[in-house]
Amino acid sequence: MISMKTLLASAVLLVAVPQAGQADVLVGFVTGLSGPVSSIGIPNAKGIAAGEAYVGEVGGEKLRVIQLDDASDPTASARNARKLVEQEKVDILIGTSGAPQTLAMATAAIEMKIPMIAVSPIAPVPSGDGGPWVVQTPQPTPLLVQGIVDHMKARGLKTVAFIGFSDAFGDLMYESLSQSAKAADIKVIANERYARSDSSVTAQVLRALAARPDAIMLGGTGTPGALPVIALSERGYKGPLYGNHGLISADFLRLAGKAANGIICPTGPVTAAEQLPASNPIQKVALDFRAAFEKANGEAPTDSFSSYSFDGWLVFVDAAKRAMATGAKPGSPEFRTALRQALFTTKELAGTQGVYSYTPADRHGVDARSRILVQIEDGKYKLLP
Q: What is the CATH number of domain 141-267?
């Protein structure tokens, strides 16, 4: 007669055998579900959920996400990254909402030698040993801002004032504007900044208007990005107003209301997917994204932030397929290395925001196909020629 002890041992063996050949690919995802950047972080999370609904496994291996909230705090972003790598043993990191937070997370990723896909724009980071380790899905800020400056030049504008965040994102926007404007012989005559947590930008707006610029460019995003728009409208400003991709947001439109009418923003093709020609390779992916988003979240996407994280998922899946082909097993240092190498050999991968081709020298991976100009009209984005 077989003893109970033998039966239990056999049962454990039977369970363990199939599991031994399988290992979930673990994705560590950090986002800001609370705090001042939550208007970006919540859509980022919904974009990852759409990605999971779109592709849930690679080569028979399940893709599992472990998500942490950094509360819009850069210190928490780095701490969460370390927890995901050191305790949860994830194979790759994706995140987070906000430029300062993402930079902190990327710095930690490089130190730990783990590949990362940034879903917010970041400044250049050191490659680190065996690197580089970090790619990003948002278009490079200079590429987006160049579209604005080209439009200003075509209109014959000679001066521009800048009103933006007093953080890394604001710095990126201002520096990009300064460089492109100088080459176009357009003078930046005001540089006004405010914190994301500020409740008023009256002083900054008054100083910008006092400079009498031909146009004003906004360097804010999401909900706090609406503050100068409202303040300018209240003071009767009727001149050209240029935004950025961070203003493609339902929260921004809701708060800014009619004051947003006429703002011209550079953004990714997904914003006007149905207005793109059918020959554009991005159109199909962008429309697939909308369907996957609705399936995962029970609503249609109304922002651009969710598509950046969705593209991050597509980039990860593409790299994971090629990393699997090397024979490296998820959970191993070899798989991390294979993932990193695969990321930087991504070629002509169509996403919602662009067509990605990463190299060790190019963490952005996109070209002019990733930029369109849209004008806000009564809560909608109209594609400009």
A: 3.40.50.2300
